[in-house]
Amino acid sequence: MAEDRAIKPKYFKRHLRTEGLKGIYEIVNICNVCGAEYISASYQSSLYCKECGEEIKREKAKERKRRQRARDKEKENWEGFI
Ligand SMILES: [Zn+2]
Fold first, then answer.
1. Amino acid 31: pLDDT
2. Domain boundaries, the chain
3. Residue 25: pLDDT band by 50, 70, 90 thresholds?
4. Which residues keep their CB under 5 angstroms from ion ligand 1?
């Protein structure tokens, strides 16, 4: 899906505390699906919170399996012809 790649990770810096003159921040991600705030180790590539990420992973796996099945079926049909 081309639209998938257009989604950019949303995140902001949250100020935690100040140590001396330095502010300590953490990166907070915002889920593209449910809008929940969450902390992710790979914030630059993270688009979804854990729950939504799992859900999307499941959907993608299902889609992949579905396509694979369709391909296998096509192959069977072809082999039947030959
Ligand atoms: Zn979410």
1. 93
2. 2-79
3. very high
4. 31, 33-34, 36, 49, 52
SS3 labels along the chain: CHHHHHCCCEEEEEEEEEECCEEEEEEEEECCCCCCEECCCCCCCCCCCHHHHHHHHHHHHHHHHHHHHHHHHHHHHHHHHC
Give pLDDT tens digits for 53-69.
999 999 999 999 999 99
**CA of 48 relative to ligand 1 center, distance in Å:** 5
According to the model, what pLDDT value does residue 42 have?
A: 66
Distance 71 CA to ligand 1 centre (A): 32
Determine the pLDDT at residue 65: 96
CA of 30 to the centre of ligand 1 (A): 8
- Taking the centre of ligand 1 as the mean of its atom positions, its distance from the CA of residue 13, in whole angstroms, is 18
82 CA from centroid of ligand 1 (Å): 49
